[in-house]
Amino acid sequence: MVFLFLPYSLSSMNSYLSSSHAAFCFVDTWLFNDKKYLFIFTGKELHSAKFIGYIRNKVDNRKIDKLSLLNIKKGSAPIFDLKLLVNEPLTTKELNKEELVCDLEKDCALVVISMICDIFEISGAVAFKASGFGQKDWPVDCRTDLSTVMEQVPEILKKIELNQYDFILDFYEQGMERQVAFSPDKDAIKLTCSSRTHWTPDPVFIHMKREQISRIFEDLYNRFLEVGEILCSDLIQDPLLEEWKV
To answer: What does the pLDDT look like over 85-131, one tens digit per residue?
Structure first.
């Protein structure tokens, strides 16, 4: 394995990536002694325990000030992510209304969201996926967890629109009970995960770019509306949902 510190510049990055030595490489930028550097490492040992231990030691001894690679380990998700996936071609279906769990009176936007997520769940065609902080597949579903996330997404998007990246995404349903706190950290966004169950995030924090964060929430919001328009257009177009929409 080869790993190099190079003074940060586009020319130094392009020069290295255009060389034959760039195969199987990972490139990131780190702050080191208050200066920005390219950190480039290559080789099959990328995921080795020995290499991860070496990097952790550097961080523990405060020789590296900002590191977005602590979460690189075999089998773990490299970043935090949220996705709404479709498992089969979607068509408008006649759903068995008796399967609907939500029995609340439809009197506000949050109840409408809950009904939409209920329909996603019983359709069998839609899956909600969350990953990160050492767990590739979080134990989430459409019926409960997607509903709790979607009620928070519009306010998060409003803050992102104002370039305000200080907010919390709370998976508060029983069984999940974890949250991700977002906060600006120089030119990146720091995500810190905390758990109220026996599960422990590893790593506890990661760094992501602003555009990565905005893309996650924008894509989730748009996908929610697109899928809902096919499976339950009456609910997506319900006037009560207008107060929720961005």
So the answer is: 998 777 655 555 555 555 556 779 999 999 999 999 999 999 999 99
Q: Which residue reads 């080795």 in tokens?
A: 48
Q: Is 97 helix (H, G, I), strand (E, B) or coil?
A: helix
Task: Provide the CA 132 distance to its chain's centre, in angstroms.
Answer: 7
Q: What is the pTM of this model?
A: 0.68
Domain identity same for 162 and 49: no
Tokens of 53: 């231990």
Specify if 68 maps to a domain: no
Q: In 3D, which of 86, 119, 113 has the Cα closest to residue 100? A: 119
Tell me how far apart the alpha carbons of residues 142 and 145 are, in angstroms, rounded to a whole number.
Answer: 6
On whether both 172 and 107 belong to a single domain, the answer is: yes
**What are phi and psi for residue 93, nearest 5 degrees?**
-115, 150
Strands 35-42 and 25-32: antiparallel
Considering the domain boundaries, does residue 71 fall inside one? no
The DSSP-derived string for 77-101 is -SS-EEEEEESS--------GGG--
Which burial class, exposed, middle or buried, applies to 33 when counting CB atoms under 10 A from its CB (0-12, 13-18, 19+)? exposed
